[in-house]
Amino acid sequence: MYRPVESRSFRRATLLAFGLVSVASAATLRSFSTAEARSATDVPPQVKKPARKTAKPAAKPAPKASAAAPATQGPDGKVVYSTTCAACHQATGEGVEGTYPPLANSEIVNGDEAKVVRIVLHGLTGPVEVAGETYSGMMPPWGGVLKDPELAAVLTYVRSAWGNKAAPITVSKVAAIRAATSSRTTPWTAAELATVK
Ligand code: HEC
Q1: Whole-model pTM above 0.85?
Q2: Helices 171-180 and 113-122 sit at what angle, rounded to 10 degrees?
């Protein structure tokens, strides 16, 4: 009567023990394999990504710089304007009311190049009427500061910016006027320029 009961409980205990071992070993295997998998995915991106990022942008600017070099010929008139003229005539070309005449919609800027080139080469003094207002100031000469290509570039910019629509001024035109006025040492007056053709 006793034996079957004993053997059955023994069998149950063995089964229970075996079951516990297999559950425990499965858990160990699982945690081991996930840890391994995590470290396997962690390592390669840390090695590969920075290597690619530094390699690509370093290769790109090189062809751009060499391609831009032949495109820029001569000085940039807008840059010359902002460093040499904008302090007085303003970035907008509007000037300062009562003090610095506007270059935007100026009859002088949009008019005869023989006059506007002379003004920038040697300066301008005394009363001058621009867009219905009279200014009596003094503009310093720029002929000693700006070379012919810079002068042509800045005047070409001024004659096409802010709604102005006058023709470009060439380097050779500036050079010819500079040569023809080389003995000039004082700023022009508006009255004098009226006789210049
Ligand atoms: C220090 C201030 C100053 C700077 C910088 C200056 N100008 Fe002038 N400019 C004047 C003044 C003042 C007059 C008016 C002179 C007068 O009243 O006779 C004038 C007049 C002129 C005129 C004729 C009037 C008109 O409005 O059309 C032109 C064109 C001109 N400037 C262009 C330039 C250009 C281009 C530059 C840069 C290369 C420049 N100026 C830099 C002060 C300046």
Answers
A1: no
A2: 70
Closest ligand 1 atom, residue 154 Cα: 35
CB-CB neighbours of 14 under 10 Å: 10
- Ligand 1 site residues, Cβ closer than 6 angstroms: 84-85, 87-89, 100-103, 106, 108-109, 116, 119-120, 124-126, 128, 130, 135-140, 142, 154, 158
Q: Measured in whole angstroms, how far is the alpha carbon of residue 32 from the centre of its chain? A: 54
Q: What share of the chain is helix, strand, coil (3-state, %, to 5)?
A: 60, 10, 30
Instruction: List pLDDT tens digits, range 158-196.
Output: 999 999 999 999 999 999 999 999 999 999 999 999 999
Q: Ligand 1 atom 10: the closest Cα is on which residue?
A: 139
Strand partners, 127: 136
By most ligand atoms within 8 Å of CB, the mutation choice from 76, 81, 89 for ligand 1 is: 89
Q: Which helix (H) or strand (E) holds 117?
A: helix 113-122
